[in-house]
Fold this sequence. Notes:
Helices cover 36% and strands 13% of the residues of chain A. By secondary structure, chain A is an alpha+beta fold. Chain B is 29% helix and 23% strand.
Amino acid sequence: MPDHTFLVNGERVTVDVEDDVRLLWVLRDRLGITGPKYGCGINVCKACTSHLNGKAFNPCAVPVSALRKKDEITTIEGLADTVDGDLHPMQEAWLEFDVAQCGYCQPGQIMAAVDKVRQVQEAGREITDDDLDEIRNICRCGTYFRIRQAIKAGAAAMG
Amino acid sequence: MTVPSPVPTPAPEGSEAKFGVDRRRFLGFVLGGATLITAADLVAGGTPAQAVSSLVPQPAELYDLNDLITDAARPTANLITITITEEGRAQFALPRSENGQGIIDSTAMLIAEELDLPVEMVDVTLADARPELVFNQLTGGSTTTTSTFTPIRVAAAIAKGALLQAAATFFGDSVELLKSKAGVIEAPGGRTVAYGQLTRLAASTTDRQVAVDLKPHEEFTVIGSPVKRKDALEAITGRKKFTLDLDVPDALPTMVCRPPSLNGAPERVANLDAVRQMPGVTDVVKVETGVAVRAATFGQCIDAVRALEVSWRDGPVVGESDGDIRARLRSAQLPFGTPSVPLLAKTVEHEFTFWFKSNSALEPNAAIADVRADSAEVWSGLKNPIVAQQEIALAVGLPQDKVKVHVVQGGGSFGRKLFFDGALEAAKVSQAMGKPVRLMWHRSDDTRQGRVHPAAVSKTRTTYLGKEVLSFEQRHASVSTDFTHGLGEILTALAAKLPSGNYTFAQSIFLLTQEVGYDFGVVDQLLNEVDERFNTGSMRNIYSPDTRTAIELTVDDLARRFGQDPYEFRLARAKSSRTRKTLETVAAAADWGKRMPVGTAQGIAIHKEYKGVTACVVELDCRPETVNREIREARTGPRVTRATFAIDAGLVINPNHLEAQMQGGMLDGIALALTSSVHLRNGAFLEASWDNVAYTRQWNVPPEMEVVVVDSDSGQPGGAGEAGVAATCAAVACAYWRATGTMPKEFPINHQTPLHFEVKPFSPPMPPSPTNGLDFIR
Ligand code: FES
Ligand code: FES
């Protein structure tokens, strides 16, 4: 089996696994990084959302062989380490609004939210309801309204 | 041992009124142990006296599902125990399942309140299956708080009493001079001792029965305060562990190749050996439900499942589609009665169809199982672990006590985890392979072969004369709801308490949950269930979103005929003062009656269940620019732009979680009314993904939402988990009629419009894993 080397949450890892195995399974089943969740495996539910070089992506739809040595994956477990302080401002906002119910979707929601705010701020805009409407992450517990509140607060703190 | 008789002090209005006795004194135990262990016993408290209503009541007004489960839990409630550790923490294993409702937190609050201990010092975990608890380990019907409210507090109060006694010995003072506060006991002169230091002293060598007074409600400081989720930090950092995240050695990923038709079965596998040779694959075996594959990663399971060549036996619904089921339901509809009304009375009849809906949570069906020759161990999110343990033991041929069932926090349930399909299948697969397995259903499995809310046809008939409603009848015909998860057993055991002998389980549940809530003269609601070929379940709020939507649309029709405003009409006919107050609250908060642009409208509805009353007002936008929004692979359609909800939930334990549960329930109600269903075509459900199922997404969420908690006169806690759904679903339906001028007759309203997706193939049963994920990075 081929070796694949890349960075995960600041650590260099090498995994011996077939080329076509999707990164979600390399993270979960081989590296024991279980923050990114399975909800569909076909890039729909967004429960697995993580960051590749600082931008949101869905590891269930990326074969491990597509990664290059210098690629840096950040999962929810590593998000706080990308900022000073114990938690990322978006995680702080999540706590403030007590968003989580069952919690299953929440790692993906937070990773998607951080990325959405980044995009909006790079475009020099404030986050709007229309931006929030574009987020595709499922929450079957229906925490969507608190998610919207938390993203607005988190965006202010990230700005 | 002397057992003190109940103290005859009158309890405050409504407090513990459920028990029908004016007292706050209860009996419990200090159990023998090295440290302090207490338990609650309510058996000695006698049976509850039932309330008596003045009008001719519907069954649920007298005795509802919450009462039933509470009564069923009572005889074994003495087995729940609280332990005080030497660190001064209170430990309690909750015989319930947590799936996001926040019951771990509310339980910790009850204990903290009675024990005078900070909430952070209370550790609540989920108990493994404990068969001796019989009915006391079922999480369903939003009954957790109702049924555990008293026993948990009794155990905590006994613990505090024992600690105070121990402190009296410790200080050489009399108990009356001591005060407990925040986990510390204070004696005169500022001397203090912590609970942890006292627990050995307070411990008993034998089991002793003791009597205890509970705190009066006016003295509550923890109960009723907004407390945040204790596990929030775990959830937002990715540390919270769900079944699939557990580290169980050698439990490798396992999936099942399932039939193309609903409940079909495997016949022959043509390429078993070839698939066994695929990368990562360790085992491939045929089981009852399909062909199971175990591999190093789930990705390799998916590839192997897709490669399998299996011939299948058709499932029992092949050849039939939505329309056939509706025809079957219509012919099963029970006839209306013939209430004797004056000759000049007018009659209004309506019929509504509620299509199948997916009951899937975001966490798919999942379980870890390790079945050996002489024992078995299973991990899963289970709401009824005792029945799961029994059935798994039976299936793998082991004695029940050789099967250890661990209850793991679930990633959402909504009634789904009352069933243990995943756990049972995992156990069978593990046995067949002789290895531990980590079983996961693919999303397409969960959607196509998983549990659904049964389709139903609901008819209403109302008679009225002038502006007086003389009678209201509802006939609800539903595809059979599967109650074999244990609620049925409770009913068997408590058959004597049921409204009348001859009902089936489902009819009994129906009667125990339904209450029209309006003064409509002769009221009569009946259920008939047919067709047991589907995998159904008691999805969040069971029958009520459907029955309530049928009722409230009928109510709006009557208001029109009487020339009255929908709110005024409801207010005038609401049967209880709680309902009136809740209606007034929601109408004021929502600016009921405000001017709305053409193509938009408000809708209003109530619901009464779970010992509480709810009311909802929504604003719905049905203008073309909204309805026709283009979002890829999405159901757009009408959008609720503002939703206001009022609830009288009785005694509120945690207003923060109550609000969260209502918000979630409201978004369920919006999905049921507008977007979310599964379509039956030729014996299979077409939907295979979240985009297909169209549960509420951000683009369907009201930008404005508000939940108002009504001050309640009831001292009894009500259920919250399901209470948000029915009134919201009905309010959306009513708003749709007012906005468009067309009364909606089928739900979700979008069910018959062209599909918004391309149907995924049925064979292979799982779609390919995409490879283009990097293309979407922005
Ligand atoms: S699991 Fe990756 S998007 Fe659903
Ligand atoms: S919190 Fe349960 S799915 Fe989002």
